[in-house]
Amino acid sequence: MAEPLIIVGNGMAATRLADELSQRALGRYSVAVIGDEPRLAYNRVLLSPLLAGEIGEREIELKPAAWWRGRGISTFYGRSVEAIDRSAQTVTLSDGLTLSYGKLVLATGSVPLRPPFPGSDLAGVATFRDTRDVGTMRAYAQRGARIVVIGGGLLGLEAAYGLSRAGGEVTLLHLVDRLMERQLDHEGAGLLAAAMAARGIDVRLNTETKGFRGQDHVEAVELADGTEIPVDLVVIAIGVRPNVGLARAAGLSTGRGILVDDGLATDDPAIFAIGECAEHRGLAYGLVEPAYEQARVLAARLTGREGAYQGSLLSTNLKVSGVGVFSAGEFEAGDGAETVVLRDPAGGIYRKFVLRDGRLAGCVLVGDTQGALFYLGLIRSGQDISAIRADLPFGESYCIGKAA
Amino acid sequence: MRHDAPLAPAATRTTCPYCGVGCGVLATPDGRGGATIAGDAEHPANRGRLCSKGSALGETLGLGSRVLHPLKRNAEGTYDKVSWNEALDAVAAGLRAIMAEHGPEAIAFYLSGQLLTEDYYVANKLAKGFIGTPHVDTNSRLCMSSTVAAQRRVLGSDTVPGAYEDLDSADLIVLVGSNTAWCHPILFRRMQDNRRERGARVVVLDPRVTATAEDADMMLALKPGSDAALFAGLLVHLAGHGLIDRTYVARHVAGFDEVLANAREIAPDIASVSTLTGLAEEQITAFCELWASTPHVVTAWSQGVNQSAQGTDKVAAILNCHLATGRIGRPGCGPFSLTGQPNAMGGREVGGLANMLAAHMGYAPVEIDRVRRFWQAPNIARREGLKAVPMLQAAAEGSIRAIWVMATNPAVSLPDADRVRAALAGLDLFIVSENVLSNDTLAAKPHYILPAAAWGEKDGTVTNSERRISRQRAFLPLPAEAKPDWWIVCEVAKRLGFGEAFTYTGPHEIYAEHAALSAFENDGTRDFDIGAHAGLDRAAYDALKPAQWPVPSHLPQGTARLFGDGSFFGPGRRAQMRSLALPRLAATTSEAFPLLLNTGRVRDHWHTMTRTGLSPRLSAHIAEPSVYLHPADITRFGLDEGGFARLASAHGTAVLKIVADPGIAEGTAFAPIHWSGETASDARIGALTQPACDPYSGQPEMKATPVSVTAVAYRSEGFVLSREPFALPDQSWWARLAIQGGEGRLFATDAPVDAMAALMRERFGSDELTELIDRDGGGYRCAIIREGRLAAALFLAPAGQAPLWDTVKAAFADPAITVESRLALLSGRSLGGTDPGPTICACFGVGLNAIRAAFECGAATAEEIGLQLKAGTNCGSCLPEIRRIGAQTQARETA
């Protein structure tokens, strides 16, 4: 009889794992997926275009209902897992249902950070995580509401862009002197800021939020310098933290995320964690690619094959239409590094390559991310790129046949 | 057929302005100042064919580089536009002042084989008959004056005996010092036709293995300056084998015995010829036997023979062999000088050389008197004038105070050219009649620049290498204030008080007078007689068909060959064979100057490139000034192929790109003559060449100057394309060339990347600048894109990695192209349509074009795209876009 395997979480990591398992060993496990969102799993990366109205809600679904049915996967949507009983190898759902597992995979994702600003509990102060948030935000934006997005990282930029496209009058506040400061150098960030401004978003850098003012509903954002920005909606998008509450309650080891080894196992050999909730070698990733890689490795191991997750090279892709941003590895040239820069201000294009000892150590692409994966591969492989140095900025097709 | 269709525009029958082959050209004006160019199938010189230079004539017709108004130098050393009246008055006043203070012989004219015969005639007449100075010389001095001298010394007249038809019917063609394949391509094709169809053999004698040698049966790479030794050896061989035509020699030739004795001193046997020429004995024997056993032999030569301090003897050595065998003046055989310029021959006819007076008459008292009477000349010159090199030396020393230069660029082309430039700049009165607004001679700051008509505008006659007079006709209007050279000369003559002798209403009247002078008291005593043309009116002149002189009144169809009857123009109507000096170079190599510098033309350029340099097509073949060296010498002197070398002679220096060429003999170097201060930073080859001249012809030895060579290193190399001239940082090496839509410069520089980036910003601003900066790697590329078009581009790379410019040049050239991918442009490469287009799938880096193509090839869904290209199979964020692309593609296909 098939061993029961329960996946807690109904996001991209969970779906990819279910997919991998069904391809590798359909029938070996009796798979159940439990998600607290009352709907089919969807592509969270597409929340920004959904918010922008560029695509419809059906288009973000990762797999249709028939797909899940066809693979015999039991789905429990709109219900969260309340507790894990590790000794009994059961989970209890919010509706009281208890399910047994042979293997348990935690793919609980992350939750938005909500710093304790005064007034954070006012109505009209939102975060940007799921389709429900999108619904709220879109409703505001569509009536031309004044919206402040706090946070100039990937999430904040996507929110700001989507809101603006949907009709909102958007101001983006960022604490430091440049957008995406963990991924972009000054020039790249400047170009991005200009691109956002060109799309009607009022970008304010070096701007510290003090709190929110309002009666029941937020009315203004108060800044540290005393200015107030009148507002109908505030979206806090300053980051996420791994969702580890369930694991911690079950006594599993956690740091920032649920600690896993190279086999994605927690300190309980029957329990695994993948995706944004997992912490591997000290890193909890907030991106989709490591989650997919982890899902692949875990599926291999669960089906009796070799596989080890070695960690992912951090790379960032911002996908808002017309402004591609990609960053990987070193993005500032430190001592001993050299740079190759390609810039086309009129075309909104900026490419910077950081070289170290004849090898690509990092790159920043703004405006056109053509070749991003090629560069990522070069950074990962650490191969000598001296022979293609002059062709490097133009992408893989220009470097073929010349690489060392 | 429709009858209301516009008539095809009429083609004008004219001749090519480049080499001495004198090809017929059909020019059809396009109504916008240009013309389409085709070969004239009816012209006997080329029968419809044109070479690369002739074919590209249409690209050289623009007015962009032309001088269009009379210009007068002002106190600041710049130029003011003045009226013709003011300019002509001032020129005349200036000449009069010089005459008054220093005498007429302080005035010199430096003319050109690019002038038409009519222009030449009036200039010569004004100087020698009216101003009274014999100092009229021409750039033909650099071209074939050694041939003129030798033909006069040996044949008794400056006569090319044969015709091009001889190249079709010869069984052996010996090319001496002639890269015919590049410099006279149409004749070379005739020779190759003969070789292919009749089995004629072609032998090339040249120290340099050129393109001509590639299509030859025998290549003899002899030592520089040793040609005469080989022909002396040939004469000895002929005598030794009983192959002298004793009867012919007895009847028609003088001096045979002395000449044979002289040849035996120089070249007593094959071994001594081998020592002198550096050729193997078997090669010499093979050559002598082939020449001796082939009665129908044409020996043709060009500058390799002429441009020598013993050029006259070299030509004489060739003529001696033809005379000794009677192989002259008959179909399929004879000595044949291949002339460099379109109207060098016409210049010789009018007397444009300093050692001639007029119409093939020299300075014998009877000749002086005859010409004086014909011209009714008040101030006839009575002795030979200064030839080009001493003329400019006299200018430097101050005995010549005024020079009028017409249609040539002596500051580039004369030997010791830097000193020439200085001498011109130091004149009391310096006048230049020119087509172009800027060249090295104009950079010496003439007091007056007179705008002359250019090819396509001027109207007259030229004579090619086979004595064929052809009409060069105008097919374009005179632009702005440009005037024919003859008009300018006549206007000055009028202002000098000689108006009555210069009343011509058109070139036909000048030609008719020239023809009349040729026939004046001639009666068969002078070779040059075109008396049949003395009465031509305008209509007959305009209708003149190409004809070979002599065209005496009783032979209006002209004369294909002379001397077939053995009747020469020397004393007793004999030819005079001439003894030779021991063959040697004017200067030999030394420790300080260990290489011999040879010079010459490249295939697609002409002289100083003021015309061919305007053609992108012609500029593409050889784009930069180079020195060609044997690979062993590149190693020996510590040079790098593709790097740079400084050549230095006792006279001047140049810095050139190094090209390895195993066809260059060890110990020699070759550099093209074309580049000037206008077209390159440091490639004036004339500055290096020595002014050592032939004792008879005064032609300088420009093909064997001792030089040193040292490596020059630059930090980086690159190119810049711009619509307007672009100034590179000081000390940069550059070569400028025409490209479609503007100019290109290939350059090398020590300026750092930041300086180049700053230069581009300063010049073009930063808003429209797309750039790639690799400061540490020494790379910089930028493009200025205005309104979707490439306005300028600069690419820089570390030395030795010079970036290729073809793709960028193509984008720059096409006025219709809009730059879609700026990045692809900066890559400098075209991947043949594999440009990926904007990124659609960032995860797998799949671009729009690939996805579109996959849909077009049958993919129906985004999933199939995923299977094929992986696009959309990772994060899936692009799937909506992929579907949209699919829908668009399918909609297009349905439509």
How would you describe this structure to a colleague?
- The complex is a heterodimer of chains A (404) and B (895).
- By secondary structure, chain A is α/β, with parallel strands linked by helices.
- Chain A contains ten helices and 25 strands.
- Chain A has helices at residues 12-25, 47-52, 65-70, 131-142, 154-166, 186-198, 245-249, 288-302, 372-381, 396-399, and strands at 3-8, 29-35, 74-77, 81-85, 90-93, 98-100, 103-106, 110-112, 125-127, 146-150, 169-173, 202-204, 209-214, 218-223, 228-230, 233-236, 240-242, 258-260, 271-273, 278-280, 315-320, 323-329, 337-344, 349-356, 359-367.
- In chain A, the strands form seven sheets. Chain A has a five-stranded parallel beta sheet, covered by helices on one side. A five-stranded parallel beta sheet of chain A has the order 9-16-10-11-12. Chain A has a five-stranded antiparallel beta sheet with strand order 21-22-25-24-23.
- In chain A, a hairpin with a 4-residue loop joins strand 5 (90-93) and strand 6.
- In chain A, helix 1 packs parallel to helix 8 and helix 4 (131-142) packs across helix 5.
- Chain A is globular.
- The mean pLDDT of chain A is 92.
- Mean pLDDT of chain B is 93; it is low at 1-7.
- The radius of gyration of chain B is 30 Å and the shape is globular.
- In chain B, strands 5-4-16-15-14-6-7 form a seven-stranded mixed beta sheet, sandwiched between helices.
- In chain B, strand 2 (24-29) and strand 3 (35-39) form a beta hairpin.
- Chain B contains 32 helices and 34 strands.
- Chain B is α/β, with parallel strands linked by helices and 895 residues long.
